[in-house]
Structure formats: structure tokens, C-alpha cells
Amino acid sequence: VQLVESGGGSVQAGGSLRLSCSYTRRPNYVTWFRQGPGNGREGVACIGRDGITMYSDSVKGRFTISEGVAETTLYLQMNDLKPEDSGVYYCANLYFRSLETRHVRIWGQGTQVTVS
Is-contact 85 32, C-beta < 8 A? Predict the structure, then answer.
């Protein structure tokens, strides 16, 4: 499984961005992580093939993870963005539903999000 992120960029606080994670074969579990300057990677949203989602408290109510109709792309819709949301965002294939880096099987290359 190969994961490719896109959609990062710069936005003002309060704005929105939608990140995409594309793959050739749909993983069973995909989690979006982010890594801010000087911080470790933090899991923010996860979705399984069953459609069940989970979110970190820091993004709950503002971010939405979803799957495209063609089942070749996952999205992370980010609304009401804050400066502390800045960082490199990675999508990852996990062994099971989790927000923890130790459960990652494969990482994407990341996409930069900057909120000012």
C-alpha cells in the first residue's frame, strides 16, 4: 500500500483546508497524524473500512475524516483552523483503529499546513 497526501497550504486562522490521501488499494485503517515544530507526531483522526471514525480531543468538532465515493481517496476536512494546527500532516495505514504512532504500518510522505 502506498499513501500520497495532498492539499496542504497556508490559511488564516478561522479558515478551512481539505487534505487528501490517495492510495491504490484501500487500507483497512487510515489515520491522519500531524507534527508541529518541536513536537512528536499526534494522531488526530482515524477511519476504518466500516466507516467508524475516531478523533483526538484537540480536533473533535472541527475536523472530519471521510472517504471518497471511488474508495481511492480519503479526506480530512479541517475547519476553524488555529495556529496550533500548523504542522506536517501525514496519512498512515494502521494495523487497527488507533491514533497512536506505534500502531502504524506505513507512512505517507506528509503535506505542510500553516495557519497564521
Answer: no
